[in-house]
Amino acid sequence: INDQIKAKRSNILLEMSKQHQKEFETKQLGMVKEVLIEEKMHGKDHYYTGHTKEYIKVALYSEEPLENKIVKVKLRQILDDGYVLAEC
Question: If you classify domain 3-87 with CATH, what class do you get?
Answer without folding.
Answer: mainly beta
